[in-house]
Amino acid sequence: xxxxxxxxxxxxIAAALTALLIACGNPKPQxxxxxxxxxxxxxxxxxxxxxxxxxxxxxxxxxxxxxTEVPKGEIRDCRLEVDGxxxxxxxxxxxxxxxxxxxxxxxxxxxxxxxxxxVVAILNDQTAEASWNADPDDSKAMxxxxxxxxHEGCWTNDRAKICAD
Length: 165
Prior knowledge:
Elements: H1 9-23, E1 45-48, E2 55-58, E3 74-82, E4 85-96, E5 102-104, E6 118-122, E7 127-132, E8 143-151, E9 154-156, E10 160-164
Antiparallel strand pairs: 1-2, 3-4, 3-10, 4-5, 5-6, 6-7, 7-8, 8-9, 9-10
């Protein structure tokens, strides 16, 4: 099992899982609140009046559908090397996790021609946990690359070099 999120367990794991979902072209998961008497229905909001046992319908409230917008990455110069072999070299979409971590070569705009991608999840100021999809048809970065450190703008270790400039 990886050490993703050991610095801040909830944040690191959530960020890594969100990055994996986004890399696979899935929107960020939505939290579902329990329904109650004030929840919005498809056509109206129901409010129970204390003076009347019958609920009253409010037609002046228009329910809004949940957002289906997928977070967008940005195009950067990318490089992904694993075990001495270059898998990505050139422009690719990168989704930032906001803490310095990112998903390199995301699939949010569709599966790229070279569909290997990598996830870098920050552990602390000097290290991160990296994983990738060794099988280019795999939609999850479940193949562990191990702990990486920053060197000349890239995350590296003995097996991998992951760059997004």
